[in-house]
User: Fold this.
Amino acid sequence: MQTMNILVTLDRGYLSPLRVMLFSLLESNPDAAFHLYVLHSSLTEEDLSMLASLADAGRWKVTGVEASDPRLEDAPTTDRYPKEMYYRIFAAKYLPQELDRVLYLDPDLIVNLPLEELYRTDMGNCLFAAATHVQEAFRKLNELRLDMEEGGVYINSGVMLLNLPLLRQEQDYEEVFRYIDSHKKYLVLPDQDIISGLYAGRILELDPFRYNMTEKLFALRVKSDAWHNLDWVRENSAIIHYCGRNKPWKPGYLGKLNVFYDETLRRMASAGEK
Assistant:
């Protein structure tokens, strides 16, 4: 049984959705083992123990990695985007040196299918692998807003495969902080803005319908096979991402993909998880 390294970064406000996401990860990958790295600045030992209890130690290990950098105190944050979001940019600095890759997953998603193929993706000379949700016109606007490399990929940072050896060799932490300082007033979705702005030409583009499926992709891209077809999503989308303010655990959810979240909750209840 091979082990996949998984990374999450969060504060305590997202622990409940995180447990649902992790349950779906374990359930959808019954033949895999995982080492979960929790990069944080505010979780307790009890929080980490709760995450460790989701599966037996034979296929599940949880390691908390406490992070802190005073230079992030003035970086842009919101209630939806706390300072912990920046830690994923610096993951290569904080994670154990022996790791060669890690798959970052947002707490606000459901893993629907096995992730082995994604995890083993050949990244070549790329620093990150991620999907984009941005159409051509908005990509051009992002190039101007963020001084992106022309023709580069503007990513959604909710699902990212990180090439840790290359990041350790090539990432300049001071360059990241200079970028944050010089672009502070232009950062809307800070972590993915920074990653796209600095590394757009070194990102391997993933299929969003397969690895970062959203309500917008489901409802608006009418030429796709996935349009208004939940069976297609169930059979083809490995990851369903509830990005933005539209969350299935909040009242007034708009869309149809919450069915996957609700089904996971019911299976958690049947398994004795609350």
Q: What stands out?
A: The first strand starts at residue 3 and ends at 9.
